[in-house]
Amino acid sequence: MALIKKEYQLPESNSGSLFVKFEPGENRFRMLDAITFGYINWEDGKPTRYETPSDVPTGAEDVKHFWFVPVWMNDQVSFLEIHQKSVQRELKFLNDSEDWGDLENYDVIVRRDGEGLETEYFVQPCPKKAKKKEAKKKWEEMSEHYKPNNLFTEDGVVYAKPTEQDEGLPF
């Protein structure tokens, strides 16, 4: 008997994950809500996020500005953290452009090429069209449980799936 059945398929990278990052190749997404801006610092392999530069401790090294935003990506609602300045700059340019405007009104493709210090990012807007009905519906279901300001708390839980409460329990 085989330990791995022949019909088993490895899941795609980030398959089913609520938190996504730019993978090699094309990454197409639609922003669903406001961007949360902040600063991140890594110490001992753990991230600490701050709302403003004045919140960052004196002497903290390698502090990066980040954007955190709910997106429709890979046919699901996910949360994307963008810390690449080149991507932030291009997205800001598109958002401020008279021709493109609000990033909520069209998909964006970010292509990631290379690895390590040789990594490059290319940003391309897609033609404007209505948000997919499924994306709207899923985000409406999730949005009340989305707490972006929790990024700046110790546990950092920004989304907690709703749980069914057993009404028979007295506590």
Question: What proportion strand?
Answer: 25-35%
Overall geometry: globular
Note the quaternary state here: single chain
- Which structural class is indicated by helix and strand composition? alpha+beta
Q: Compute the number of helices.
A: 2
Poorly predicted parts: 166-171
Biggest β-sheet, characterized? Answer: 8 strands, mixed
* Helix content percent band: 10-25%
Mean pLDDT: 88
What's the count of strands? 8
Distance between the termini: 48 Å
Number of domains: 1
Radius of gyration: 19 Å
H-E string: EEEEEEHEEH
Structural features:
single chain, 171 residues, alpha+beta, eight-stranded mixed sheet, 13% helix, globular, disordered C terminus
Explain what the structure shows.
The protein is built from 2 helices and 8 strands, in the order E-E-E-E-E-E-H-E-E-H. It is an alpha+beta fold and 171 residues long. It has one domain (19-142). The radius of gyration is 19 Å and the shape is globular.
List strands and helices in order, with pairings.
Layout: E1 19-20, E2 25-31, E3 36-43, E4 46-50, E5 64-73, E6 76-82, H1 85-96, E7 108-113, E8 120-125, H2 133-143
Parallel strand pairs: 1-6
Antiparallel strand pairs: 2-5, 2-7, 3-4, 3-5, 5-6, 7-8
Quick rundown:
This protein has helices at residues 85-96, 133-143; strands at 19-20, 25-31, 36-43, 46-50, 64-73, 76-82, 108-113, 120-125. With 171 residues, the chain is an alpha+beta fold.
